[in-house]
Specification:
about 525 residues; alpha/beta; nine-stranded mixed beta sheet; five-stranded parallel beta sheet; 14 helices; about 30% helix
C-alpha cells in the first residue's frame, strides 16, 4: 500500500503490541514506515525495495512449536536489518547465534551495560549504564559469527549486537518505548548511520503529496464529505478542499449529541479557515425521538448509526440533484488499516469509520487522504493547513457523541447537564495547560444513579459525574492521567456549584486494559 515518494522502512510484525509504535518512531525520525506481516516472503520484501527492515518484538518463544521465524535469506539481500526483542532473537537464531532460557527473565525497567571495548555505533558515547524497557524470557547467549556484542544485562548476556559490514544490528530491549532512556537515539542512528537513510518524511511533504494525489484521483469530479466535528474528518476535508476547492461539499449532521459549542465551532471556525462549502443538517429532534426510552449502549449506537445514514443520505441526494457526486471522503487512519488487515493486503476498514449502509444509487469512490497517517501526523497536517488549534487539538470524541457518556436514557435535560459539566472540565484542563498532555477526558453522567448530598441547608439527591482523564499515544492502550489535585478540586467545585443537578464528582483511575476509555 506504499504511497511514499521517498525511502520506506518496513516493520515486520511478529505479533508485537508495539509494532505500530515502532512505525511511529521511525516516522518521528522523518522516515516513512509501513507495517507488514511476518508471513511476507523475502522475495516480496525485496520487491518493495525498502531502505531498511525492522523486525518487531512478539509474544512467542523462538523455540515454541509454530513460533514465527525469519527466512535467513533476508540477511543476504543487502537490505539493512534491525532486530528488536523477539525480532532480535529470531535474527540471532537464523544467523547461527544461540538463544536459550537463562532462568532470569526481564520485564519493565532494566539496566543494561555498554561493552566498553565494543566500539559499537548505536550505543556510541551513550552512558555506560542506562535504563531500558525489557520484556523477555529467552535471551541471546552467543552472537552470530561476525557480530560484535555491544551491551549486556543481568538476564541477557547479549543485549545488543552489530555487524556493520553487512548493515545488520539488533537490541534485546525496546527502543521505541519512552521508558528506554536513549531509545530514539538508537533508532535514529540505525536509520541514519547504519542504513544511510536521509530524512524525507515531513509534514509539508505529506500535504504536497496528498494534494497532488487527490487531484489525480478526483479530476473534475464532485466530492462529498461527512464532517463529524472531529480532527480526522476536518483534516481530511481540508486536504481535499486544498486540492479541488469548490468541487467539495461537506455535510455536517448536527444530531444534538455534541459537546457545548462544538456545532458552532464546525460551522464557524472550520468554514472560516478553509472556505469550504458546508451543508448543515439540523436533526437534533429526530435523534432524540429515536433514542427515547433506550438505555442499552449497543442499541443506542445502532439507532444513532441508522439515523445518521438517513440524514446523510437525504443531504447527499439534495447535493447530487444539481450534478452527480462521484467521490466520498473518509478520515481513515493508518492504525485502522493495520487493525483491519490492510497492512497485509486487504482493504477492510472498521465499520464505524465508514459512512456505510448507503443505498446502491448513492455509491461513491472513496478518497482517503489520511490512510497512511497516524493521529499525531494528522494533527501536524491540520496545523500545516492552517486549521485553528481548537480543531487540531480537539480531544478524540466518539461518533455517537454524548449518548455513550450518559449511562441511561438520553433526554434533552440530561444532555444539558452533561454539556455544562463537560464544558467546565475542558475549560479547567485547558487553563491548566493540559490539552496536549491528556489524550482525552470523557466526562460521564451516571444518569440512573442518585447520590445523596448536602447543598446549602438541605439534603439533595443528585447525579454523580465521572471524570476519566487518560494518557495514550494511540488509544490501543491508555493509563489514567495523574492530573494535579488542585486542578481536580477546581473542576469538582465548579461542577457541583454551577450544575445544580450534580452533587458528586468522582475520578476513574482504571487503565486500558482492563477498562476501555469510554464507559459505554
Amino acid at each position: 500500500m506504499s504511497e511514499a515518494t521517498g525511502p520506506t522502512v518496513l516493520v515486520v510484525d511478529f505479533g508485537a503490541q508495539y509494532a505500530q509504535l515502532i512505525a511511529r518512531r521511525v516516522r518521528e525520525a522523518d522516515v516513512y514506515s509501513e507495517i507488514v506481516p511476518h508471513t511476507m516472503p523475502v522475495s516480496e520484501i525485496v520487491a518493495r525495495k525498502p531502505a531498511a527492515v525492522i523486525l518487531s518484538g512478539g509474544p512467542s518463544s523462538v523455540y515454541a512449536e509454530g513460533a514465527p521465524s525469519i527466512d535467513a535469506s533476508l540477511f543476504d539481500t543487502g537490505i539493512p536489518v534491525f532486530g528488536i526483542c523477539y525480532g532480535f532473537q529470531a535474527m540471532a537464531q537464523a544467523l547461527g547465534g544461540v538463544v536459550e532460557r537463562t532462568g532470569l527473565a526481564e520485564f519493565g525497567g532494566t539496566k543494561v551495560t555498554v561493552v566498553p571495548s565494543s566500539e559499537g555505533l548505536l550505543l556510541r558515547d551513550l552512558p555506560a549504564q542506562q535504563s531500558v524497557w525489557m520484556s523477555h524470557g529467552d535471551s541471546v547467549t552467543a552472537a552470530p559469527l561476525g557480530f560484535t556484542v555491544t551491551a549486556a544485562s543481568d538476564g541477557a548476556p547479549v543485549a545488543a549486537f552489530e555487524d556493520l559490514s553487512r548493515r545488520l544490528a539488533g537490541v534485546q530491549f525496546h527502543p521505541e518505548v519512552r521508558h528506554t532512556e536513549h531509545g530514539q537515539t538508537v533508532l535514529r542512528r540505525f536509520l541514519r548511520e547504519v542504513a544511510g537513510i536521509e530524512p524525507s518524511w515531513t509534514t509539508a511533504g505529506i500535504v504536497a503529496d496528498q494534494v497532488e494525489r487527490i487531484r489525480l484521483q478526483v479530476g473534475s469530479g464532485r466530492v462529498i464529505c461527512g464532517l463529524s466535528g472531529g480532527v480526522d474528518s476536518a483534516v481530511a476535508a481540508a486536504l481535499v478542499q486544498r486540492a479541488v476547492g469548490d468541487q467539495l461539499t461537506c455535510v455536517f449532521v448536527d444530531h444534538g449529541l455534541l459537546r457545548k459549542g462544538e456545532a458552532e465551532q464546525v460551522e464557524r471556525d472550520f468554514v472560516a479557515s478553509t472556505g469550504v462549502r458546508l451543508h448543515v443538517v439540523e436533526a437534533s429532534d429526530v435523534f432524540l425521538a429515536a433514542l427515547a426510552g433506550v438505555s442499552d449502549p449497543e442499541t443506542k449506537r445502532k439507532i444513532i448509526g441508522r439515523e445518521f445514514i438517513r440524514a446523510f443520505e437525504s443531504a447527499a441526494r439534495e447535493i447530487s440533484a444539481s450534478a452527480p457526486v462521484d467521490f466520498l471522503v473518509q478520515g481513515t487512519l493508518y492504525p485502522d488499516v493495520v487493525e483491519s488487515g490492510g497492512g497485509s493486503g486487504t482493504a477492510n476498514i472498521k465499520s464505524h469509520h465508514n459512512v456505510g449502509g448507503l443505498p446502491d444509487d448513492l455509491q461513491f469512490a472513496l478518497v482517503e487522504p489520511l490512510r497512511t497517517l497516524f493521529k499525531d501526523e494528522v494533527r501536524a497536517v491540520g496545523a500545516e493547513l492552517g486549521l485553528p488549534d481548537s480543531l487540531v487539538w480537539r480531544q478524540p470524541f466518539p461518533g455517537p457523541g454524548l449518548a455513550v457518556r450518559i449511562i441511561g436514557e438520553i433526554t434533552a435535560e440530561r444532555l444539558a447537564v452533561l454539556r455544562e459539566a463537560d464544558a467546565i472540565a475542558r475549560e479547567e484542563l485547558t487553563a491548566a495547560g493540559l490539552d496536549r498532555d491528556i489524550w482525552q477526558c470523557p466526562v460521564v453522567l451516571l444518569a440512573d444513579v442518585r447520590s445523596v448530598g448536602v447543598q446549602g441547608d438541605g439534603r439533595t439527591y443528585g447525579h454523580p459525574i465521572v471524570l476519566r482523564p487518560v494518557s495514550s499515544e494511540d488509544a490501543m492502550t491508555a493509563d489514567w492521567s495523574r492530573v494535579a489535585f488542585d486542578v481536580l478540586a477546581r473542576i469538582s467545585t465548579r461542577i457541583t456549584n454551577e450544575v445544580r443537578e450534580v452533587n458528586r464528582v468522582v475520578l476513574d483511575i482504571t487503565s486500558k486494559p482492563p477498562g476501555t476509555i469510554e464507559w459505554e
